[in-house]
User: Fold these one by one.
Assistant:
Number 1:
Amino acid sequence: MKSIQVILIVLSVIAAIMGSMAFRSKLISRLLALLLLGVAIGFVMFPETTSDIARALGVGRGTDLLLYVTIFAGLHSCLLLYMRTRVVQRKLTELTRALAIKNAVTPKPKAFSAR
């Protein structure tokens, strides 16, 4: 086993552990992290596999296939984050509006002074 393979496997395990801690309450997310860890370790241990899969899918090289998948995953992550941010913004607006209505003070009429 080459030293880069050891480094990549260790980094993959660290990423899976951090992902598992971040998604501690979501079983599906934890299982997905384990699946991705297994795939990553498989691709690191057997790098020619990516080329075989790429050729089967009609892509020239395994590196190109990984790049396409990474771009797709990045765009998907950005869209998910954007959607969650929009939900949080809406909730914050609703809470701020409700708090402002609850704490609204009716201004007292000023005495009219005739000069």
Number 2:
Amino acid sequence: MVDFQTARATIRANANRLFPKAVGDGRSASERIRTGGSPIIYHDPKFKFSKQSKFFTIGSCFARNVEAILKRMDVPVLTMNQPIPDEFYGLTGLGGRTGALNAYTPDAILDMIRISRRPDRNTIGRVHFADDAYMDMLISGVRQSNSEEFDFVRTLIMETYDKLPMADVVIITLGYTEAWFYKPDQVFVNRPPGGNRALMLKGDDFCFSNRTPNQVVEALGKTIALIRELTADRAKIILTVSPVPMNGTWTSKDVLVANSYSKATLLSAAVSLAESYDFVDYYPSYEMVTMSPIDLTWEDDGLHVKSSRVEEVIKTFSDLYFE
């Protein structure tokens, strides 16, 4: 807690603290989100990077948008070095890509980093159907495979995580709180046991949990500590929340309520932890996207953010954080 005088000094120094429309100064939140374009959101970064800094991105599909744009800016992105070939995805025709790296919940993100340090890392989360048929529950979007294909893709993913200790900056993009746990290997996974008939027959091996605020803070705190340990206390960490809504909820709530719970829980945890460490910062990409006009921001599916909008968000990031 802070005393009254400290709190008063804080608000006197904050020119952007008021929401109601002010008279002519243009700095109220109401005015800044009613410009007809992207909202003006002020952010004071804790630290700066050079464009030679090595980036490692972890998290949901929005993290893939971020890394692609950083790569186009000639920033070294460690997670872009080994894309998974198109033929191994369930949805083909998009070319080799890094979507298989998607990790959606704080617990799954933590387990992916932990698993990469284990000697049995190439078999954890592997579901065996019949004969030579497997599904990798740790890897997002890949199709059912035989053992040779499974080993090839899992090896690429683990070799990518082997590069984490080289990172100068780690960007974590949090997706949602609805998590699935694979009981045989005691690990949080990155795909639900649905949408595949053979996988649904293995449904009793899984359990569902909508993570609480305390559980999210705990998992994210452990992730921060592990990243710092692996990078010898060198890496700076940027926390963000993906603006991309969940495709559907596994709870009894309306998906609008379920999605709001997920995003609010993740956002509060990210902001709280960023305020606890001088090497962790929260970047408000979620607010920059969700407060923008719908037609300028979302693809026709209502789920994915237009690339032009992502580019604006990352350009703002670049202007703020790069020396």
Number 3:
Amino acid sequence: MSRILPARPNLEYLKKEAKDLLVQMQERDPDAQLADAQFQLARDYGLTSWPQLKAHVEETMALSASPLEGRWIADVSRSKRHPANQFRSATIVFALKGDAIDVNSEFVDEAGKVVRGRYSFKADGVEYQSPTAMH
């Protein structure tokens, strides 16, 4: 199967993907190892080995404009949420344009209500008053 890596691949996600693939492989072959799943995943993405896939992802990340930029999605199953803030999901998108940073957020609270926020600020070394609420 031929797959295409996203423009900003994430090595941690690929490691999780390899572990998930290992579970599937072990259903067919109990002797399958993580290295087998990593090798198969690399081949699926058109590379010859896991080390080559890893090197490609690390190089892509190094060339990236910013490690902050992109979509961040909370892993609710692993999140340590405050008892007063039991959200169902949380997504924050960071976009960088020169020295401007745009932050868009979307939270779904425990009752299912969607709360969206948008905030822009300059990363220019000047201290600004923090907004009291996102709009």
Number 4:
Amino acid sequence: MKVTRRTVIKGGAAVGAGLFVSQYVPDWLFSGSDPPTAAAGLASQSTEEFVHTTCWIGKQDCGIVARKIDGRVVKFEGLPAAPRNQGTLCPKGMGQIQAV
């Protein structure tokens, strides 16, 4: 077999690509086991809480429900029992999640 400059470059490129890809392949892929599911672990450990409060962005003081997961506010929704907004919430109110 004749070794040329082209075959050496091809071989070097193949080895380099293999080493590069091997850093990003998870270990469970070749072990034969199932991949770990992050959602299953989080569902058993996370705590969900709903806090009733008012929106501070407008002048109406609309009633809102803040959904907290593990102490972190993840969503604002309108409070259906609030007489002023009756479960609705304006885009400004929903956007306050970024301020929190």
